[in-house]
Every structure is written in C-alpha cells, then in structure tokens.
Design goal:
Layout (H helix, E strand, L loop, with lengths): L3 H6 L5 H13 L5 H9 L3 H14 L10 H23 L4 H14 L2 H14 L7 E3 L1 H7 L4 E11 L20 E7 L2 E7 L3 E4 L6 E13 L2 E4 L2 E2 L2 E5 L4 E4 L5 E13 L2 E2 L3 E8 L1
Antiparallel strand pairs: 1-10, 2-3, 2-13, 3-4, 4-9, 5-6, 6-7, 6-11, 8-9, 10-11, 11-12, 11-13
Helix pairs in contact: 2-3, 3-4, 5-6, 5-7
Protein name: MarR family winged helix-turn-helix transcriptional regulator
Amino acid sequence: MKTTEEVQQTGLPSLLQIRYLMELEKVGWKRGTVMEIAGKCGVSHPAVSRYLKSCCEKGILNEKYEFTTVGKMMLDRYRKLIDETENYLARIGIDEEAQGETLRKLIENLDCATLGKIVRSDRSSVQHVPKPVIWKEESFLDDMLAWGSWPVCIAIYQAGSQIEQLRKRSMADRGVERQAMLRHNKRGSWLELSIQKMNAISRVDHAEMKGKLSSLKYECNGRLHKAEIRGNKVNIPLEACRFIQNSRGIIKGRVAITVTCSVGCVHMPESTALLIFWL
C-alpha cells in the first residue's frame, strides 16, 4: 500500500487530498478554513496546510487560496472520475465494504485518462443491464414485504456529499448491534435497532472508556424526528427509509440520521450519519 508521500511522488493527489479541495470549494477561504477542513476529513491541521500550499505552487490555487482555471478543471475532472469509478465498482460486483479502499487505490495509482478509459469501456459493455429498482416506502411494503419480522444487517457511515464513497464508519456504528429487525405488522412498520455498549480509548491518557448511543433522530420528508429510546431498543419508521434493489436482486434500505454518543465523561457533538441495511 502506498503512503501519501509515495502517491505525491507520482504527481497524483491522494483521494483524501482531493477531498481537501472539495471541502475548500464548499466553504471558501476564510479564517479557520484549514482547521474546518482538517476536522471534516479527520486529519491534522499541518497535513491540510501543507497540501494547500503545494497547490498554490502548482497553480491549482492562487495566493488567496481561490481556484485557478486550471484548478477548477482538475477538480471537476476528479469529481466526475470518482463518480464514474464508484459506479464501475458497483457494476463489477465489488463488495460495498471494499469499495472505498479499491476506489482509493485506483484514483491514486492510475492517471485520469487510463482510468477513464477503463470505466467508460465497461459502461458501454453493460448498457443494456437493467437499472436498479427504487421503491417508495408504500410500494415496497405493498409489493415486496410480507407481514412479519425480518432480520437485516446494518452499517452506519459518516455522512458525505461528493465523498460518500470513502465509506468511513461513524462512531455510532459501534453503538448498535450488527443485526437489526425489520418489523411489518398491523401496529406499524419500523426498523428496530439494538443499542450496545461502546468502547473507546482516551486520546488524553489512553484510558479505556465505555459509553452508549444517547440520542438518535431520523430524517423524514425533509424534517428531523426524534426516535424514542426504550431500554436498549430504538425504532425508525420505514416511511423514513428509501429502498432499492440492484441488478443482483439485493434489497437495501437507507435513512439519514443524526446521533449523539456518550463515552466516558465525554459527550460527542451531534453528527450526521447514513444508516444502511440490507435483507
């Protein structure tokens, strides 16, 4: 696996460095921008600062840390390439868990022209593959889900816009059991999560800390709704979920959530995440 320095020696930016630029494009340059980007990307302040300075030297950014014409073209090219490559990995059946790392290796080790030819060639060969079927909640329940209780696997990822494909797990992912229950009966339809204890290591004194997920809100029709936590169970109505069936017949659901966690004496700030489950 190549280090960031080895990737830089090839002249290609790392996927993380592309994310620095995407975040810069969103927030613009102002006091505290470097710290904000570092926080969102989970890296140190100096790492972001060094890379942005190198972009100024390469003509990607000007002295005011604004994108030059060359910089805008480069960022647009990588954004499009990331989207195309993510779709390519899904088409060839790369497991969702491995897509982030595979994407990183392709972006960092192949030039844009070569990688672009690979994904476009594959796309042309599968033009007639049926598109995934997407259901609204009502049609999914009517057409696909019989009454009863169904075990599903879940994963919670940090929310992202252009870089969701990095698939970095949210801290909340450690606060729920891997298996949940999808319940559909006369009383209603909901996804039932089981909360479990969380473990973390203090960055201050390296002591082991324990805690749990303390609140969860789910997005439905553009609004956040607080889910009630009873004991170690929390329910999310299926009307808040979006369902999709891919060409291999796998049915997945997803819902945007915000969570807070308490570990030791530390109460983590509310963070947005994407909960995905599959039958």
